[in-house]
TrEMBL record:
It comes from Marinomonas alcarazii. The gene is ubiB. ATP binds at residues 128-136, 150. One of its GO terms (biological process) is ubiquinone biosynthetic process. Belongs to the protein kinase superfamily. ADCK protein kinase family. The chain crosses the membrane at residues 22-43, 500-516, 528-545. Signal peptide: none annotated. Is probably a protein kinase regulator of UbiI activity which is involved in aerobic coenzyme Q (ubiquinone) biosynthesis. Keywords: ATP-binding, Cell inner membrane, Cell membrane, Kinase, Membrane, Nucleotide-binding, Transferase, Transmembrane, Transmembrane helix, Ubiquinone biosynthesis. It is found in: Cell membrane. NCBIfam families: PRK04750.1, UbiB. InterPro entries: ABC1_dom (IPR004147), Kinase-like_dom_sf (IPR011009), UbiB (IPR010232), UbiB_bact (IPR045308), UbiB_kinase (IPR050154). This is Probable protein kinase UbiB. It is an enzyme of class 2 (transferase). The active site is at residue 285.
């Protein structure tokens, strides 16, 4: 808790130091904050010389990798930011200050357990690029291949642990402050983000992710993934093929190469939906610093993806739900959207569907009044999020990564081709995917998938059949025994009912004999004693011997 407090204090001091108060809408805050914190933050504001975007970038860099990641995400949303701010934040994608090359060399030698000159024919200690988590150096293998060597920043786990601890503290505060805070499920979101960013610190996992993505797009005309050199990969070091291409954010270079920008933007959308729905494995950190373009065929440009540290996946239920929701949006079927939200459990089961439908329509219909190309999916999500507050809709942590990636894709697509119509590009793909889920092709795929398991169980079928028949036979025997026992019990009950009066009479006779006989007078038998003895013998016969 104390560590989180110190970290929070540093963040506040950074806000003041870089004059980031210009981004805070003090006019909308309560008066006691406006006239206290607002007054303090205004001190020295006029002396701030750097522009807003540069101050924001420097502040994020000083606060560490988590904040740099946040700036990278923002940099792709030029529809939400001024150009000056977006241009500055774009520098966070691959122009973060580097750490010394000799430290990178020491990390490589420690992890790969060999001197650099034995590992590589050539190694450049000057970094080629530097990002928030790692930096890369160029090298050449002794076999002649040109490669890049990625190295994790030293002592970065400690900084990230502090930030994650602060995020958990803030998340618990938000969750306990109000019902809206609980609905946002901030603790689950932070847990999901912690899992994601800790994975990014393990380059062995990134190498495995890269290998899988490469297999998924083998011989693809849409995307190329560089080759991994497995013998040179470790937790803090990864070596991959060096690629050649134009950074996707270098619009001037792409135009100079006569790249078909419309095709490039549409292919980016197709790659995203292919990864999500066809492969269930998608690159979730697709900011411009991780994407290059192969312009060898400018009319059919091909993407090149690097940095596969953050990957996402969805199960079949999530994919089906997402596809049906998106199609319902495209078709303006708000009733279906409302029903899907209730069906999936996003909103409570008792939510009135007609009221939720009306609320969704009020958010989406004004947007559809615009040309499709002017509709921002990000704005739709924000509008729905605000509307959901009335219906206690909860944030789904498993979809947060997907939503962030979709916003990145849309922002990048509009940067490449401002007239990109995300809806028109995605709709045919989703419709085709939905048809495949219920058609004969899907049935055949499931048969192929299950065939090896069935083949392995085939030799066991005779034994399984014999066992099942034996169990059925024993079951019949047990059922017959139970039937006989029930019949016998019925006979005994019937006999008991018939003899019950005699047994009661016998019990009464024994009782009468007991009361008549006086134990003291047994030495002097009288007529009453013979009467008592007779009653006792009759009662014993009726109670015990009479059937």
């Amino acid at each position: 808790m104390l560590t989180s407090a110190f970290r929070l204090l540093r963040i506040l001091l950074t806000v003041v130091r870089f004059r980031l108060d210009v981004f805070i809408p003090f006019a909308l805050l309560p008066w006691y904050i406006r006239y206290t914190l607002g007054a303090v933050c205004s001190i020295g504001r006029k002396r701030a010389r750097k522009k807003r975007g540069e101050r924001l970038r420097l502040a994020l860099e000083s606060l560490g990798p988590i904040f740099v990641k946040f700036g990278q995400i923002l940099s792709t949303r030029r529809d939400l930011l001024d150009d000056e701010i977006a241009d500055e934040l774009a520098k966070l994608q691959d122009k973060v200050p580097a750490f010394p090359g000799h430290i990178a060399q020491a990390i490589i030698e420690r992890d790969l357990k060999a001197p650099v000159d034995q590992l590589f024919a050539e190694f450049d200690v000057t970094p080629l690029a530097s990002a928030s988590i790692a930096q890369v150096h160029t090298a050449k293998l002794h076999s002649g291949e040109e490669v890049v060597v990625k190295v994790i920043r030293p002592k970065i786990e400690k900084t990230i642990s502090k930030d994650i601890g602060l995020l958990y503290t803030l998340a618990h505060l938000v969750a306990n402050m109000s019902d809206d805070g609980k609905r946002l499920r901030p603790v689950e979101v932070v847990t999901d983000y912690e899992y994601t960013i800790l994975d990014e610190l393990d380059l062995a996992k990134e190498a495995a992710n890269t290998g899988l993505l490469q297999r998924n797009f083998t011989n693809s005309e849409l995307l190329y993934v560089p080759q991994v050199y497995w013998d040179y990969c470790h937790r803090n070091v990864m070596v991959v093929e060096r690629i050649s291409g134009i950074p996707v954010a270098d619009i001037a270079a792409l135009n100079k190469a006569n790249v078909d920008m419309k095709c490039l933007a549409e292919r980016g959308v197709e790659i995203f939906f292919t990864q999500v729905f066809s492969h269930s494995f998608f690159h979730a950190d697709m900011h411009p610093g991780n994407i290059f373009v192969d312009v060898s065929n400018p009319q059919k440009p091909k993407y090149i993806a690097i940095d596969c540290a953050i990957m996402g996946s969805l199960d079949d239920a999530d994919k089906n739900y997402l596809a049906r929701n998106l199609l319902a949006f495209f078709q303006r079927d708000y009733r279906m959207v409302a029903e899907l939200h209730v069906e999936s459990g996003w909103v409570p089961k008792g939510t009135p569907v007609h009221a939720f439908e009306s609320a969704i329509r009020s958010v989406c219909e004004p947007m559809f009044a615009k040309p499709l190309k002017d509709i921002s999916f990000g704005q739709v999500l924000i509008g729905l999020f605000q509307t959901a507050r009335r219906f206690n809709m909860e944030v789904q942590p498993q979809l947060v990564l997907l939503e962030k990636t979709l916003l990145n894709i849309e922002g990048l697509g509009r940067q490449l081709y401002p007239d990109l119509d995300l809806w028109v590009t995605a709709k045919p793909f989703l419709e085709r995917w939905m048809r495949e889920q219920i058609g004969p092709k899907r049935v055949m795929e499931e048969l192929r998938k299950q065939a090896p398991q069935w083949a392995g169980q085939l030799p066991q079928i005779p034994n399984l059949v014999f066992t099942a028949l034996s169990q059925m036979s024993h079951q019949e025997e047990r059922m017959q025994a139970q039937t006989d026992a029930i019949a016998q019990l019925g006979k005994e009950l019937k006999s008991s009912r018939q003899s019950l009066p005699f047994r009661l009479l016998g019990a009464l006779s024994i009782g009468a004999a007991w009361f008549i006989t006086d134990p003291v007078s047994l030495k002097h038998l009288e007529i009453a004693d013979f009467t008592s003895l007779g009653l006792f013998l009759v009662g014993l016969y009726l109670l015990v011997l009479k059937p």
